[in-house]
Amino acid sequence: MSGLLALLDDVAALAKLAAAHVDDVAAQAGRVGVKVAGSVIDDTAKAGAKSLGVVIDDTAVTPKYVQHLPAARELPIVWKIARGSIVNKLVILLPLALLLDNFAPWLMTPLLMLGGAYLCFEGAEKVAHLFMGHEDGAHDEPHALDAARLEEERVAGAIKTDFILSAEIMTIALAAIEAQGVLTRGIVLALVAIGITALVYGAVALLVKMDDAGLKLAQIGRLSATRAFGRWLVKAMPGIMTAISTIGTAAMLWVGGQIVTHGLEVLGFGAIAHFIETAATGAAHLVGLAEAAVEWIVVAALDGVFGLALGLVLLPIVGRVFVPAFAALRGRG
């Protein structure tokens, strides 16, 4: 009996020791979890901020895909494009980005630069169209297409465009993540993908329905001020869309130029980046007020100028070399 009691006492002691260890493990896990969560939130915020230029452009580009379609189909179309965007980011691009990051990290900088060059090309193309004009008639839909077929084509075109922009967002976001470990980086990247998709297509949904909301307010508003605001909203929407498009173009040139100059610096060609940094620092000291803000503005402006110059150089190369080559390959296929 005394031996049994001693055994039970030992078991109780072991149970207490195990409970203490479990408590320590739980406390450690809690601290690590908080640290990881803080790192994930911080990295998500940084990665999302780095992708801002592409996000603005994505938001500015998408509304054109619902033009000239029935108002009742606008939100369903935006939802279809948003679903396609999530598939692009989470199913295709996220695993691909993590594989490259782990097995071929040396490819990340060239891929980023390639994406930055694409942004510069897109921005320069919009600027060139603004000053030289372009043929809109070539892009008009045939009137013979029924609404369902037209909707399918618009959605497919939007998802293809989104794939390019999403690839750039995911690459920029991955480069901005400081946390280590495939799981943590994957979680951050997934959060960025979901958050940016919700932001972009939520904003697009608001934009495409804003004129309808204004018209409704103008018709059924109880107060004269409400009706007047509705009428103003309907009249202002074309200008708002133009402003968003302009901001998107500027953001593309700024972000694209910054990506390329930083990539060149990483590859050992830092003259342009150093010049921009020196000019920005000099301008900030010269002004003497709000130096950090002035330095940021000058850096963004010079990155944008470089992006525009690079894009203008790429315009004839793409038009005379890559487009004919792609068309020839498609013809053979």
Q: How would you describe this structure to a colleague?
A:
This protein is mostly helical and 333 residues long. It contains 9 helices and no strands.
Helix count from the secondary structure assignment: 9
Strand content: under 5%
**Count of strand segments:** 0
The general outline is globular
Assembly annotation: single chain
Can you give the helix content as a percent range? Answer: over 70%
Q: Largest beta sheet, briefly?
A: none
Element order: H for helix, E for strand:
HHHHHHHHH
**Which regions have little confidence, pLDDT < 50, spanning 5+ residues?**
1-5, 21-40, 135-144
Radius of gyration: 27 Å
Straight-line N-to-C gap: 89 Å
Task: Give the helix/strand class.
Answer: mainly alpha
Averaged pLDDT: 76
Summary, kept brief:
The protein has 333 residues and is mostly helical. It has 9 helices and no strands.
Features of the shown structure:
mainly alpha, disordered N terminus, 9 helices, 333 residues
What is the strand and helix layout of this fold?
Elements: H1 2-50, H2 52-61, H3 74-103, H4 108-132, H5 147-176, H6 182-220, H7 224-266, H8 271-287, H9 291-332
Helix pairs in contact: 1-5, 1-6, 2-5, 2-6, 2-7, 3-5, 3-6, 4-5, 4-7, 4-9, 5-6, 6-7, 7-8, 7-9, 8-9
